[in-house]
Design a protein that fits this description.
about 325 residues; alpha/beta; five-stranded antiparallel sheet; 12 helices; 13 strands
């Protein structure tokens, strides 16, 4: 793992002990995000993406969650050594988060302006007059029409796209070094989704903020991200540059995700989907967790969990029989 990373996470594990058994949500993942980079964490619902981000930010209640990691270091600080008051100073100021459902993320009984003002008052040392001015400008910067009018409105009075823009404005308000965006366009239609993504990308490039994008939508990944970490059942199964992975996936799960995306440039009339579903985190299969859904699986896959091994200087895969031998390699499967 790179030691010059803005965010460095090593060996992150998250479990939830219950009366029925232990839920293994995250099983020892490593990740690094560099300044100005967009890293996408990709996988189906239930793979551990959102839980990982909440654990990094210290937003999981402990109990019920048990969080362990060898390293969680942000901008040279050991986040595991900080108390709740110190973490609260980092959240919003140095690390901000964009949640997937803006209507529930925003306080329904507070005006948009008051919620934006809080960021500037708490983290930027402004007075109320300065905060109001900065809030209106922040709304204007993310493409909100009539920002002075929207400033006085409440979340339910705005459209879904407008609410999502408000969350983006709040995230960038204090000029954070890292933004975590958890499915930021899930609830939006395709046209509004593209507008919001364009605003997010423009703001990120303008500010130089690092972005951790959590999504299952590979079209969003292709548009925004520099690198991908593919997660399955609490483990990283493939990593590498976006263009390489989308063009030549090495893990059967990544291949399945790509094949599941409808395309306009083919004549296929049948919709493909990965068989079955993500395993119950309380009762995961032996060996490779993906083997019950994998058409390439052999006996070794059913018995032994593969390690995350290097295919090239930039790519890693957790598979006994990867689809690629390495960068530019030939497929090993028919």
């Amino acid at each position: 793992m790179s030691q010059d990373a803005l965010l460095l996470v090593e060996g992150l594990k998250v479990i939830f002990p219950t009366d029925a058994g232990i839920i293994k949500a995250v099983e020892g993942i490593d990740l690094a995000i560099h300044p100005g980079e967009c890293l996408a964490l990709v996988g189906e619902s239930g793979c551990g993406k959102s839980v990982s981000s909440l654990a990094i930010l210290g937003l999981l209640g402990t109990p019920p969650a048990l969080v362990r990691a060898q390293t969680i270091r942000f901008d040279g600080q050991n986040l595991q050594a900080l108390n709740e008051q110190q973490m609260a100073q980092i959240r919003g100021k140095d690390i901000a988060m964009i949640f997937q459902d803006a209507l529930t993320a925003l306080n329904p009984v507070m005006s948009i302006g008051r919620q934006l003002d809080e960021v500037f008052l708490k983290h930027c040392g402004m007075n109320k007059s300065q905060a109001k001015e900065a809030s209106i400008e922040a709304l204007r910067a993310v493409g909100v029409s009539s920002p002075a009018q929207r400033y006085r409105q409440f979340p339910h009075q705005l459209s879904g796209g407008m609410r999502q823009r408000v969350l983006i404005a709040m995230a960038f308000a204090a000029s954070p070094k890292l933004i975590i965006a958890d499915e930021p366009t899930t609830a939006l239609d395709v046209t509004i989704q593209m507008q919001v993504l364009e605003e997010l990308r423009a703001m990120q490039r303008k500010s130089g903020t690092a972005l951790m994008l959590i999504t299952h939508d590979l079209s969003v990944v292709n548009y925004l991200a520099d690198r991908i970490l593919v997660m399955y059942s609490g483990k990283i199964v493939e990593t590498g540059p976006v263009k390489q992975i989308l063009k030549r996936p090495a893990h059967p799960y990544t291949e399945g995700l790509l094949t599941s995306v409808p395309r306009l440039d083919t004549c296929n009339t049948r919709f493909y989907q990965i068989p079955d579903q993500v395993p119950n985190p309380m009762n995961k299969p032996s060996g490779c967790h993906f083997h019950p859904r994998c058409s390439y699986a052999g006996e070794l896959c059913k018995q032994t969990m593969p390690s995350l091994r290097s295919l090239s200087p930039q790519r890693e895969v957790r598979c006994h029989f990867p689809l690629q031998k390495g960068e530019g390699g030939d497929s090993q499967h028919a």
